[in-house]
Amino acid sequence: MATTYALPAFVLSLGVALVAASLFARTLDRVGVRLGIPEALLGLLTALAADGPEITSVVFSLLKGAKNVGLGVVVGSNLFNLAAMLGVCAIITPGLRVRRLALGLEGAVALAVTGIAFALVLGVVNGAVATALLLVVAVPYVVLLVRGPLVARNFPLLATIDRDLARALGEREHWGHHEHRREHSLRRLGLVIAVTVALIIAGATGMVESAITIADRWQLSPGILGLLVLGPLTSLPNAYTAIRLGRARRGAAVVSETMNSNTINLAAGVILPGLALSIVARTGGSYIDFAWLVVMNLVALGMLARRGGLSRFNGLTLIAIFLAFCVLEVVRT
Question: pLDDT tens digit string along 235-281?
Fold first, then answer.
C-alpha cells in the first residue's frame, strides 16, 4: 500500500470495522431475543460480536507473520479495557459493586484464561494443550451462565449458595439492545449479520495493512503498533458499552462485559490460533506485557472485592497503571 494513502485508509478501515461491529452486536442481540436465547448466553455472544475488530485484527496479523503486532493487539486491548471499562466507569459513577460470588466466577475464569494464554506464549504448553485447558474452563462457565441456578438445585451440597448464585447470575444479565423497534424477518437479520461480518473482516484487514505501512514509514515498532494503537482503538465499542452500563449503575454487567471481552480476546486471538500457528514469543517484551496484564487483572479484582465497590481513586489507579504501561513501552522501544 502506498504510504500516501495509508493514513486515510487506516481511518476509513477503523470506522468501517467499528460501525460494522456495533451493528453486528445489535442485530445478533435482536436475533437472540427472537430465538429465545437465555439472556446470560446472549450477553456472551454480543460481547463476542463487539470484539470482532480486535479478534480479526489479531488473526490477520498472525497470518501475515506479524506476531508481535497480533499479540500486542490482544494485550493492549485487554489492558485498555480494564482502564477504560472499569477505571472510567468508577470515575463517572463511583461505588459500582458486584456480588462476591459473581466476582469470584468472573475473576477465576479471567485469570485462568490469561494464565493459559501466557503459558502458550511462553512455550510451556502447545496449542492443543492450551485449547484443551480452555475448554475445561470455558464449558463449565457457559453452563453456569445458562443453567446456573438449576445446576445448583440438582446438587444438595450447593443448596446453601443456590440463592446467591441465582441473584449473582441475574444481576449479570446483559444490557441488551432490544428496544422497541419494528421487527424484521430472521432472514433479513441473517443477511445483515453476514454483511456486517464481511465488513468487519474487510475493515480489520485494511487496518492492519495500512497500520503496518504507517509503522514502517514512521519507524514504529510492531509492539507499539499493536499495544498502543490497534489494541485501544479496536476496543472503543466495548468502552462505550461499559460507560452506558456504568451510568445506569449496572456494576455487575460492567464487570461481566469487561472480563468476558478480555477472555474472548485471549481465547480467539491467542489460544485457538495456537492450534495452527506458532504463538510462542521470541522476545522478552511479550513476556513483560503478559505479566503486566496478569498483575493489572489482580489489582482490578482486588479493588472490586472492596466492600464499598470501585471508588474514583480506584478508577484513577487503573488508568494510571495503563498509562504507566504505555510510557514503559515507549521507553523500552
Answer: 888 888 788 878 888 787 788 889 999 999 999 999 999 999 888 87
The rounded distance, in Å, linking the Cα atoms of 134 and 274 is 12
214-220: Cβ within 8 A, 24+ apart: 214/3, 214/6, 214/7, 214/10, 216/3, 217/3, 217/6
Which run of H or of E encompasses 216? helix 186-218
Q: What is the dihedral of CA 12, 17, 18, 20, to 10 degrees?
A: 120
Alpha carbon separation from 197 to 49, 117, 126, 268 (Å, rounded): 9, 26, 30, 15
Q: Residue 239 corresponds to which cell in the numbers above?
A: 468502552
pLDDT at 282 over 80: no
Grid cell, residue 301, equals 479484582
Question: Residue ranges of the domains in the chain?
Answer: 3-175+183-332
The CATH fold of domain 3-175+183-332: A middle domain of Talin 1 (1.20.1420)
Cβ burial 146-183 (10 Å sphere, 16+ → b, else e): bbbbeebeeeeeeeeebeebbebbebbbbbbbeeeeee
Entry field: residues in the chain: 333
